[in-house]
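Lecture 7 notes: from sequence to structure.
We start with the chain below.
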Amino acid sequence: MNRIVLDASALLAVLNRESGAEKLTPELLSTAVSSTVNLAEVQSKLVERGIGSRDAWEATLSPIREAMAFTADHAKTAGSLIAQTRFLGLSLGDRACLALGLALGAPVYTSDKSWKKLSVGVRIHTIR
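Predicted structure tokens for the same chain:
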């Protein structure tokens, strides 16, 4: 099964029905995974908006097939990626997403156009 990795911005775009979300078709979403770091980021945004914690977590998980644990190997990769991503100011969550994509050999989907400037060994798709 081919998988895709969604970062927090792509997940939020789907949940909020934002511009670009239509590019994440039901077929793509049926293969979508996300790092638990990114899931925590999405849930945080939903809770900040006043959604109850349990409902926010259910909503966060709803677009994806699987939540992928942030492992020690992912942490090592995400930490190392700072050298290649510093010029764009990528967050730990962003680098966790890229680390998961690298680990799985799977393309990453984001709404952040600046990621197209990256060359980190994973295919990056922007939805806007």
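Points to note: The longest helix spans residues 36-48. The chain has a mean pLDDT of 97.
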